[in-house]
Amino acid sequence: xxxxxxxxxxxxxxxxxxxxxxxxxxxxxxxxxxxxxxxxxxxxxxxxxxxxxxxxxxxxxxxxxxxxxxxxxxxxxxxxxxxxxxxxxxxxxxxxxxxxxxx
Length: 103
Fold this sequence. Notes:
- By secondary structure, the chain is of the alpha+beta class.
- 37% of the residues lie in helices and 30% in strands.
- A four-stranded antiparallel β-sheet has the order 2-3-1-4, with helices on one face.
- The longest helix is centred in the N-terminal third of the chain and has 17 residues.
């Protein structure tokens, strides 16, 4: 089952500095997730010129498992995120899904 995590940065902190300081640790961590991470990346919400959120889609069996993966991320541990939305996600249509199914 897929779970989507939308993580909005804490506006009260210098999120750019946290992202820079924790980037390598974050990348090392997500590399350990293997097939449990379907997709992940930074976002610029609200027309912001800098990244101010992150999106992850996990392939796990429960929302608790998705939350545990998120909580293991150095960005989470550095308190980068002020707001997290976790939701079950059902991929239904789209170019990426079609390409994935063809391979």
